[in-house]
Amino acid sequence: MSNPQIVTDPYSTLQFVELSHEWDQRCPSYPGQTDVKMWRGVKHSQHGVLAWRTVTVMHTGTHMNAPIHMVQKGDDLAAIDPARYFGNGIVLDLPKKNWEVITAADLEKAGKDVKEGDIIVIVTGWHHKYSDGLEYYGEAPGLSKDAAEWLVAKKPKMVMVDTPHIDHPLATSMAPHRGGPHMKRLAGDYAKATGLDWKKEHGEWNVAHRTLAAAGIPTVEQVGGDVDLVKGKRMTLAATPWKFEHGDACQVRVVAMFDPTGTARIEQGK
Predict the structure, then answer these.
(1) Which bin fits 68, alpha (ψ -120 to 50), beta or left (φ > 0)?
(2) What does residue 152 show for φ and ψ, rounded to 5 degrees?
(3) Residues 146-178: pLDDT tens digits?
(4) Is residue 124's pLDDT more than 90?
(5) Radius of gyration of the chain from Cα atoms?
């Protein structure tokens, strides 16, 4: 997004920061999935009304995953307690380069201010690479199994990342795991760039994502927007999905909120 900014509500003086990527038919789509399709069903020039028609995979742009996405008997979007969608949280600044792993040790170092019940946002800087590209989807950093276990132990309301996957891409179907590889050159490119064997390093399929899902923790992938403005800070966060029965995922708008008075109040609307 251009012109990063903190927006102040003139009535309540609460401050808001956008943490979502823009979403439309230009939105990048995961390898192996179809692109977003949008067209105007009704146009102003015809009827004085604008209404879009859309066909999309729910896993595009900034989106929330329900536990059922990875665990068959996990909660769907409609079953998740709405209290998880809003609350205190923290944005952890964890810069990572291509193909690096986010470990429990990384989280322990950056997450000293994490509290039980937080919404935890992990920012690696990968949101700056958001695009329909080989590097974005194939070379992203990702959570290790012990990082996911560290997060589960904190009992968070939700976990968010600025990467396209919760896991390292070599632990997903981008690589030669079940249903893959969606990126056929990925395993070879990884070996050439790192000297590592993908199967030895990332032999468990989506292990971090499955660990979080099994604990009933919803996740958000592809956080973006003006998230750089809030790195390392505590704030209130909100991300609300559709009430989608059997829904595994949907696009969400993530917003960070600050109360300059320090009272962390919610307006009564009087």
Answers:
(1) alpha
(2) -60, -40
(3) 999 999 999 999 999 999 999 999 999 999 999
(4) yes
(5) 19
Sign of the CA dihedral running 72, 73, 79, 82: negative
What confidence score (pLDDT) does residue 269 get?
66
pLDDT of residue 1: 46
- Residue 216 — left, alpha, or beta (φ > 0 → left; ψ -120 to 50 → alpha)? left
Evaluate whether 233 touches 111 at the Cβ level (below 8 Å).
no
Fold of the CATH domain 7-21+58-258 = Glucose Oxidase; domain 1 (3.50.30)
What per-residue confidence (pLDDT) applies to 13? 87
Neighbouring CB atoms inside 10 A of 32's CB total 14
Average pLDDT, the chain: 95
Helices 207-214 & 145-153 angle (0-180, nearest 10): 20
Q: List the Cα angle 8/236/108 in 5-degree steps.
A: 130
Q: Which two tokens stand for residue 69?
A: 């996405």
Q: Where are the domains of the chain?
A: 7-21+58-258
